[in-house]
């Protein structure tokens, strides 16, 4: 049976270099580098596992911010003949790498904390409180720099959550330092280190989950694939839908793309396709859609292991 293959889609300008957060990344990296140096020196002098663990995590945050900044800059580069989507996917790679680095740092810090618990030594609680108090200010200010963009971009959200978590952890370190001063119990310091690790691991789980989903090209959060399928089936004269794929081009939650095959006798003209594309953007925030229209069932069925057109309306692609 002959087919009329038509495609609907449109290009969108790449995001600005740095994702619009160049100043935030630069300030955040500078502040945290200075704080890591101060906290490491203070942790060694005060013999504090909590301070050293926090310094190690802050160092990983500096690397995280640098990677996120580099990826955001790459995402703003124009598309090329080989990289037809541009470099937007760099933000997904950065989110995955940052998550892996974070958990590697947690493993190292855990080892150091266990060693301090087995061999507790006197801790200068007042010095711990002073440096951790500075950490509240440094990390809190850095987190605020990314607050406006954290809801729509996993890459930016990673930077925001790292900084916000560190600010909250520093509050705990201040409290722990006070307890050491009041009680003289040196073993409280590594215990606080364990609590810090647990907080960081827990708060980072959502970032790990979302990064993996993006890397596996899952349907973006906020888009119901069945609702999209039903919307396509409701279009005039569309009989079935197959080879439906929805994914994100970058770490941004507003950078979704769609590819689908529709069975529609007589095919479709440019106006019908343009209306469909605008509807997908308005209803589901899918900004890049490619639709192939066929005038009958495709010989051999689907092309990517999905369900056949006759069953597509009753299941998932």
TrEMBL record:
It is found in: Membrane. Residues 27-213 form the Cation efflux protein transmembrane domain. The keyword Zinc applies. The keyword Chaperone does not apply. NCBIfam families: CDF. It holds the Pfam family Cation_efflux. Residues 220-294 form the Cation efflux protein cytoplasmic domain. Keywords: Ion transport, Membrane, Transmembrane, Transmembrane helix, Transport, Zinc, Zinc transport. It comes from Hymenobacter armeniacus. PANTHER family: CATION EFFLUX PROTEIN/ ZINC TRANSPORTER (PTHR11562), RE54080P-RELATED (PTHR11562:SF17). Gene3D superfamilies: Cation efflux protein transmembrane domain (1.20.1510.10). Its main location: membrane. It comes from the Bacteria. It is a multi-pass membrane protein. Belongs to the cation diffusion facilitator (CDF) transporter (TC 2.A.4) family. SLC30A subfamily. This is Cation transporter. The chain crosses the membrane at residues 21-38, 95-114, 126-146, 167-185, 191-208.
């Amino acid at each position: 049976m002959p087919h009329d293959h038509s495609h609907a889609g449109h290009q969108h300008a790449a995001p600005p270099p740095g994702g619009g957060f160049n100043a935030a990344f630069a300030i955040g990296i500078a502040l945290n580098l200075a704080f890591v140096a101060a906290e490491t020196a203070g942790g060694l002098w005060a013999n504090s596992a909590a301070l050293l663990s926090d310094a190690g995590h802050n160092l990983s945050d500096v690397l995280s911010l640098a990677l996120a900044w580099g990826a955001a800059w790459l995402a703003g580069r124009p598309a090329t003949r080989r990289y037809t989507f541009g470099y937007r996917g760099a933000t997904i790679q950065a989110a995955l790498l940052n998550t892996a680095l974070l958990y590697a740092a947690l493993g190292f810090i855990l080892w150091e904390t266990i060693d301090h618990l087995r061999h507790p030594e006197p801790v200068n609680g007042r010095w711990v409180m002073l440096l951790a108090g500075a950490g509240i200010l440094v990390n809190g200010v850095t987190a605020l720099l990314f607050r406006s963009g954290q809801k729509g971009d996993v890459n930016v959200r990673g930077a925001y959550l790292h900084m916000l978590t560190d600010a909250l952890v520093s509050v705990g370190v201040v409290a722990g330092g006070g307890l050491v001063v009041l009680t003289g119990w040196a073993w409280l310091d590594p215990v606080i280190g364990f609590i810090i690790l647990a907080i960081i691991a827990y708060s980072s789980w959502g970032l790990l989950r979302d990064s993996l989903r993006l890397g596996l090209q899952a349907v973006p959060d906020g888009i119901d694939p069945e609702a999209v399928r039903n919307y396509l089936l409701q279009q005039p004269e569309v009989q079935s839908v197959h080879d439906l794929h929805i994914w994100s081009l970058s770490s941004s939650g507003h950078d979704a793309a769609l590819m689908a095959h529709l069975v529609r006798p007589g095919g479709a003209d440019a106006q019908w396709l343009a209306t469909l594309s605008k509807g997908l953007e308005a209803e589901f925030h899918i900004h890049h859609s490619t639709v192939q229209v066929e005038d009958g069932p495709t010989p051999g069925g689907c092309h990517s292991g999905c369900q056949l057109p006759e069953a597509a309306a009753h299941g998932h692609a």
